[in-house]
Amino acid sequence: MVKSFKEVKAVQGIDLTILRGQFVALLGPNGAGKTTLVEMIEGIQKPDNGEILITGKPWKGNEEELRRLIGLSLQETRFIDKLTVVETLRLFASFFQLGKERVEEIILLIGLEEKRKSYVVNLSGGQRQRLALGLSILNNPAILLLDEPTTGLDPTARREIWDILLKLKETEGTSMILTTHYMEEAEVLCDHIVIMDHGTVLCKGSLEELLTSPEPSPRGERKLNNLDELFIQLTGRRLYE
């Protein structure tokens, strides 16, 4: 895929294949092209060149069908404050013609049984993110796109989100693309890691493959032994810079 905005070459010839049930971490510093790439996968942006296939189908002519296959959870989700947790889930479930049974499954999965009758405005940051994640998986999406879903959460709340995603991985067969600024999050959740910078892929593979590769980095250095140091070796800066 290729995508430019005037003089900015946001994505420069990226080619990726994501398998069913695979959890993929998309890592890169600010300006690497991650957001543009994800927006093209979502169907928000159209590539200048190249094509995106979801379950073998292009966006053109299949928009309605493909949108039903995708789940989204962003860094911040705005809710209707005076709806309760269960009312919010039932509202979104109605968009997919889903019944109360699916709502109850989601409440159990995201661990908000005790908060089911609480107004959304009264939820903590971690509870709101769990609710946002629950909304994104209501329709059993074939592909789940998560944009920094745990940014700003404390370590306990972050791990609660991880637990939900790991359960989803075990039971649903959903593919996931995760953008994150936490290397540990990528290591814990994802079995495939893609590191980007300046609109190109620097490397991709499992964590083990990336850390045991005998090839030197573009900067002429040999590999290091953790993902954070590998990222610095490849890009010359830390993920959050």
Written overview of the protein:
With 241 residues, this protein is α/β, with parallel strands linked by helices. It has two domains: 2-69 and 141-235, Rossmann fold (3-Layer(aba) Sandwich), CATH 3.40.50.300; 77-140, no CATH class. Helix content is 36%, strand content 18%. It has nine helices and ten strands. It has a six-stranded mixed β-sheet with strand order 6-7-8-3-9-10, sandwiched between helices. Strands 1-2 form a two-stranded antiparallel ribbon. Helix 5 runs parallel beside helix 6. The longest helix is centred in the last third of the chain and has 17 residues, at 155-171. It is globular, with a radius of gyration of 19 Å. The protein starts with a strand and ends in a 6-residue tail after the last helix. The model has no long low-confidence stretch (mean pLDDT 88).
Provide the descriptors you would attach to this structure in a database record.
single chain; 241 residues; alpha/beta; Rossmann fold; 2 domains; 6-stranded mixed beta sheet; 9 helices; globular
Summarize the helices and strands and which ones pair or pack.
Layout: E1 2-5, E2 8-12, E3 23-27, H1 34-42, E4 53-54, E5 57-58, H2 63-67, E6 70-73, H3 85-95, H4 100-109, H5 125-136, E7 143-147, H6 155-171, E8 175-179, H7 183-189, E9 192-197, E10 200-205, H8 207-212, H9 227-235
Parallel strand pairs: 3-8, 3-9, 6-7, 7-8
Antiparallel strand pairs: 1-2, 4-5, 9-10
